[in-house]
């Protein structure tokens, strides 16, 4: 069972849609149960199977083995502080890119712990934290027929959790999982998102990344 905290937003809904298409059961989490249920109903309508359920964030986390954290960076700290007791022993996939938008530019926020993923480890030390899915377009994920044709770089200090998340990534059409090394390397993947958004604006496109030479 997979849970998506903040799963009512485009990135959480997109990942939930693609993984449910691949046969996973998904729990859409929200701070508001009505919003969670509405998002799950919409997914089930698109999937034509009852693969999704909507729950409060903490209830979704409690029922899942793998938890995707899909909230804005501005609520990363508070959300983890609240959910930490429920995350003990679970794989926590942090997809959060710490970004600030001002005066027409997007910049990476310098996180005290080094990255959002390391901040998650500090706040929820019992969770098996993995950083992944930062360099994807949610809009493309929400187009179920579109092949993503990109790599997802996956960083973690927990080798088994990393392998599990790489395998989940590869269930999405056109994605290859790439081992990005330890959790501290998540900072580079998170920060790269600012560059991709800037390129997207210039070329009016949805870019992602491909590592060549492997
Ligand atoms: N969008 C993309 O293309 C993309 C790509 C790569 C990475 N990401 C990363 O993925 C994460 C989610 O992106 P998104 O575009 O889906 O974000 P979003 O729409 O801004 O937020 C996702 C959900 O987070 C919850 N949320 C909002 N404010 C909150 C708060 N103060 N406290 C707790 N929960 C709050 C909301 O759910 P409820 O109101 O239902 O609780 C919201 O639907 C971000 O950190 C982003 O950096 C996004």
Give a structural overview.
The chain is of the alpha/beta class and about 210 residues long. It has one domain (about 1-205): NAD(P)-binding Rossmann-like Domain (Rossmann fold, 3-Layer(aba) Sandwich). The protein has eight helices and ten strands. Strands 3-2-1-4-5-8-9-10 form an eight-stranded mixed beta sheet, with helices on both faces. Strands 6-7 form a two-stranded antiparallel sheet. Helix 1 (about 10-20) packs across helix 2. It is globular. The two termini are about 30 Å apart. The model has no long low-confidence stretch (mean pLDDT about 100). The protein binds NADP nicotinamide-adenine-dinucleotide phosphate. NADP nicotinamide-adenine-dinucleotide phosphate (NAP) binds near residues 31, 35 and 70.
**Would you tell me the structural class of the helices and strands?**
alpha/beta
Number of domains: 1
**Residue share in helices?**
25-40%
Small-molecule binders: NADP nicotinamide-adenine-dinucleotide phosphate
Q: Mean pLDDT, rounded to whole units?
A: 98
The largest beta-sheet arranges its strands as 3-2-1-4-5-8-9-10
Number of separate helices: 8
The helix/strand series, from N terminus to C terminus, equals: EHEHEHEHEEEHEHEHEH
Q: How many β-strand runs? A: 10
Distance between the termini: 31 Å
CATH superfamily: NAD(P)-binding Rossmann-like Domain
Biggest sheet details: 8 strands, mixed
* CATH topology tier name: Rossmann fold
Rough outline:
globular
Q: Beta-strand level of the residues, as a percent range?
A: 15-25%
State the name of the first-level CATH class: Alpha Beta
Radius of gyration: 16 Å
Model regions low in confidence, pLDDT < 50 over at least 5 residues: none
Q: What is the CATH architecture descriptor?
A: 3-Layer(aba) Sandwich
